[in-house]
Write a structure and sequence with these properties.
This protein has no helices and ten strands. It is an all-beta fold. It has one domain. The strands form three sheets. Strands 2-1-5-6 form a four-stranded antiparallel beta sheet, with no helix packed on it. The chain has a four-stranded antiparallel beta sheet with strand order 3-10-7-4, with no helix packed on it. A two-stranded antiparallel ribbon has the order 8-9. It is elongated and about 60 Å long.
Length: about 100
């Protein structure tokens, strides 16, 4: 069984027991949260596609912790005018583990 959920402006295909990193969710480590925006639920041959979400479906996840993503370098450059700007960025993320997928 798997589901497609939307959180933080992105969509993720999740299964029970899967770990994933999503945009920062304000929750304490160890707490359980619900991801109510379930776009698709598949159980074997039965596939339910939401319009836009599947009614009464939700994904329950446990927050493992708040982490920071890999550093990316933002480098701006203009030729022939000695313009160079270098910046770094690390995204704030939440580490989750999927505990259960609840259908209606």
């Amino acid at each position: 069984m798997y589901a497609v959920v939307a959180t933080g402006g992105k969509q993720y295909r999740v299964e029970r027991g899967q770990r994933l990193e999503v945009e920062r969710i304000t929750a304490e480590p160890g707490s359980r949260i619900e991801l109510p925006e379930v776009l698709l639920v598949a159980d074997g041959d039965n596939v339910t596609v939401g319009q836009p979400t599947v009614p009464n479906a939700r994904v329950v996840a446990e927050v493992l912790g708040q982490i920071r993503g890999k550093k990316i370098i933002v480098f701006k450059f203009k030729a022939k005018v000695r313009y160079r700007r270098k910046n770094g960025h690390r995204q704030n993320l939440s580490s989750l583990v999927i505990r259960e997928i609840v259908t209606g």
